[in-house]
Amino acid sequence: MTSPTSQEIAEAAALLRAGELVAFPTETVYGLGADAENPAALAKIFAAKGRPADHPLIIHLPGIEHLSRWARDIPGTALALADAFWPGPLTLILERTAIVPDAVTGGQSTVGLRVPDHPVALALLSAFGGGIAAPSANRYGRISPTTAGHVRDELGDRVSMVLDGGACEIGIESTILDLSRGSPVLLRPGAIGAERIAVVCGQAPALPASQQRQPAPRVSGSHSAHYAPTTPLRIVASDRLHDYLDAQQHAGLCCAVLARSRATPAGSPHRWRMMSSDPVGYAHDLYAVMRDFDAASVKLIVVEAPPGGEGWQAVADRLQRASAGSGMDADDDRL
């Protein structure tokens, strides 16, 4: 795996202290980092991404021992989850302390925190010695980057330095779990699913729609349109895929196809990519494949709908938001 030198890590930490932006790898996706206590530096994140000012950021921590600096009234459940899953792809939503700038939280009383599981991210956090606020290192609403090259393509000179740690291991964003309102609520699915959370918490997390008395906190990646290519993307049920593509061919359209169980038909003009039948492998490849197809000369990206079940929940979530973000209207072909 590609790994920055200790000198490059030190340079990146110095840039963060100077209020600059540094992109770095995590096990999920590449993050666009700034000093979490510096409002001027945080403003650069929003400007570089074109991100709405009320959309919260996640703070990445060097270790669990830093949790109490950023969160207050920490429930025992949060400590148990952090002990079980940190470093790892789990973001906890907790009540913020007074040091957390409003720019991080979008003016809310809660803050999202996690310890990433990547040697480059942890080395940077250790060298910096504090919290790094970091959304995904891409323009707002678009496909998250899973390589350093993706970051450079997206942001160019808007970021002062990009630490190259190779391709991200997981490939989609962290699970977000709200613990600020008592019982755990799953706000964004990710690699750590509800069943694993339930083992630690002693109860399965609820979904936001079931929490009617108090609205869920706003969190990263929660808008209905997100993670989207610029090419329109449509999700089609497995048993309709070939008929749908035949209709596009007859209409003179060449499509890019993310298939899971359907092999390439003989003589098909469409660009075809067989994805993993395993949700972990599928998630790992998803954003890179979407980027490749987005750069191809096609009019439409067609995705064979993933199967149901908890294992596929995070993939289905990202595809639904990508479809909405690419401008496709809801219809019967959609998930």
Automatic annotation (TrEMBL):
Name of the protein in its database record: Threonylcarbamoyl-AMP synthase
Entry GO MF terms: ATP binding; double-stranded RNA binding; L-threonylcarbamoyladenylate synthase; tRNA binding
Residue span(s) of domain YrdC-like: 6-192
Subcellular location: Cytoplasm
Keyword Disulfide bond: no
Function recorded in the entry: Required for the formation of a threonylcarbamoyl group on adenosine at position 37 (t(6)A37) in tRNAs that read codons beginning with adenine.
Top-level taxon: Bacteria
Catalytic activity: L-threonine + hydrogencarbonate + ATP = L-threonylcarbamoyladenylate + diphosphate + H2O
